[in-house]
Design a protein that fits this description.
- By secondary structure, the protein is an alpha/beta fold.
- It is 19% helix and 22% strand.
- The strands form three sheets. The protein has a nine-stranded mixed β-sheet.
- α7 crosses α8.
- The longest helix is centred in the C-terminal third of the chain and has 13 residues.
- The N terminus is likely disordered.
Length: 403
């Protein structure tokens, strides 16, 4: 990465920058050809941009980033390190249904309606009511009954029972046994399709397996925790042989993924709550890692949001927890648990871009994205990866380890 002469007005790394508070400062131009349409094989063959160690001052020339593959991650980690992964499994949550008029409606099943924001009218959801995004949605009114259709399957009636103001979605009543992600998964396996992001236009039957991580075990997501897609069985075995340990949490990627950041003043930013589960086993693994001098490293931003969201609710301490979190992580944030991160390349003006900027600084991040575009990295869900080692994290953002 080429280094420009320091601007006398440039702040020291990690010091306040008013531009960090404006959403428009997190924009960049991405050629459409840089958006990955298909994943590479094997999984660990994806490219990996390694963020250089943090410079001590703005006047100090930054080291150049290194260009490796995800397979090389094993050489970046140490015996005793702990990888924290998200074990959510993506549901086949995209459905085709037919209206009484004969028109088709596409539904995207998001989450149990009990987790949704206040609805349009006083309404108490049942256990089989689910919040869905619908297209087209404008004319779908409570009381309308859709017919869920799929070749070689009997039609299933789905009633629209309420409107969700915040998302623009609809609360849909599924058969009475569809009371949780595990229960609705059987129906979705028969009628649904994998909900690939809209920027992926090349679909293939292999997406049913390739858009899941190798450790996906808890059904409930409508989008994959994409950094985890890079970890192959072979790489996971190599990391285990090296003495790198692994622990799981659960965050079902849902509605927040589809809601763009709309506040230009990021001091006013709030995010949709996400359901997180942090187990006693994970907390014990983090504590043991700290005792042995290892590093707590997150695979993907969902793992970061889970760990830091739970810690923020408990005075900076990670404790067993199951419930909603809605933590905003942006520049100026002091991390409590996470010391390093493997992540993908994220959309402009997204909350995920803010999170990564909190680790390494907005200017540095955008410069690295420019480098990645210029050198042919592949972006978004099926794209390449970025490795942020603990020494690349801004000193002001690093955990103090007092929690």
């Amino acid at each position: 990465m080429t280094s420009n002469p320091p601007d006398p007005q440039d702040p020291e790394p990690g010091s306040p920058d008013l531009a960090d508070l404006s959403l428009s400062s997190y924009s960049y131009d991405l050629p459409e050809s840089s958006i990955a349409q298909r994943p590479v094989e094997p999984r660990h063959a994806a490219r990996m941009l390694v963020v250089p160690p943090c410079s001590a001052s703005a006047a100090e020339e930054s080291a150049a980033p290194r260009h490796l593959t995800v397979w090389d991650l094993q050489d970046e980690l140490r015996p005793g390190d702990l990888l924290v992964v998200n074990n959510t499994r993506v549901l086949r949550a995209r459905l085709q249904a037919r209206r009484p008029s004969g028109g088709l409606v596409e539904l995207l099943v998001l989450e149990p309606a009990g987790l949704a924001t206040p609805l349009e009218a006083p309404f108490t959801p049942t256990a089989s009511d689910w919040l869905c995004l619908a297209r087209p949605a404008r004319r779908l009114r409570p009381g309308e009954v859709l017919q869920l259709e799929q070749a070689d399957q009997p039609p299933v009636p789905l009633e629209i029972v309420a409107v969700d103001r915040a998302s623009g979605g609809r609360v849909v009543r599924f058969p009475p046994d569809c009371t949780c992600p595990e229960a609705i998964e059987a129906l979705l396996e028969r009628y649904g399709e994998m909900p690939l992001p809209p920027y992926i236009r090349q679909h293939d039957p292999s997406d049913q397996e390739r858009y899941q991580t190798r450790f996906a075990s808890r059904p409930g997501a409508v989008a994959a925790p994409t950094a985890g897609l890079h970890l192959s069985d072979e790489l996971l075995a190599a990391l285990e042989a090296r003495g790198v340990q692994r622990a799981c949490l659960t965050l079902h990627v849902g509605l927040g993924t589809f809601r763009p950041v709309e506040s230009e003043d990021l001091r006013q930013l709030t995010l949709h709550s996400e359901w997180v589960e942090v187990s006693e086993e994970l907390v014990a693994a983090v504590e043991a890692c700290r005792r042995r001098g290892g590093r707590v490293l997150a695979i993907g931003t969902t793992s970061v949001r889970s760990l830091e969201g739970v810690a923020a609710l408990h005075g900076g301490r990670l404790v067993p927890f199951a419930g909603p979190v809605n933590l905003v992580i942006q520049p100026g944030f002091r991390f409590a648990v996470v010391q390093g991160l493997l992540t993908n390349f994220h959309l402009p003006k997204s909350s995920l871009l803010l999170l990564v900027s909190a680790l390494i600084g907005r200017r540095q991040l955008l410069a690295l994205y420019g480098e990645a575009i210029a050198t042919g990295y592949r972006f978004y869900s099926y794209g390449d990866a970025m490795w942020i080692a603990p020494e690349a994290v801004l000193p002001c953002a690093r955990p103090t380890m007092n929690g």
